[in-house]
Amino acid sequence: MHTHFPKEGEVWMSSLGKNIGFEQNGSGGNFSRPILVVKKFNNHMFWCASLSTKQKKFDFYYNFTDPNGEKVSVILAQLKLVSVKRLKRKLYDISNNDLVKVKDELRGFLV
């Protein structure tokens, strides 16, 4: 198995596993889901937030347009610590401006 070394601001397809309650499940047997790398701690783990193609007007959604012109939302309330072993493939990078805004929104939740 190849180990990936993600960077903050990258969007990856990941295998987050089956979730419960209101957590966002992925699709398929591995429950694959796109995630945004929010904060890298080391080469083994990082904080991520799930992405959705359904844009909503809630405080805990950050809406943006990806490099392919698709409307996407970062689900800020679903910040999660993840191992790099869950990563499958890199999809794209978000703009530095969007990454700064995502982190600012998250700071607002944490203070």
TrEMBL record:
InterPro entries: PemK-like, Plasmid_toxin/cell-grow_inhib. The lineage of its organism: Bacteria, Candidatus Yanofskyibacteriota. Pfam families: PemK_toxin. One of its GO terms (molecular function) is DNA binding. SUPFAM superfamilies: Cell growth inhibitor/plasmid maintenance toxic component. This is Toxin-antitoxin system protein. It comes from the Bacteria.
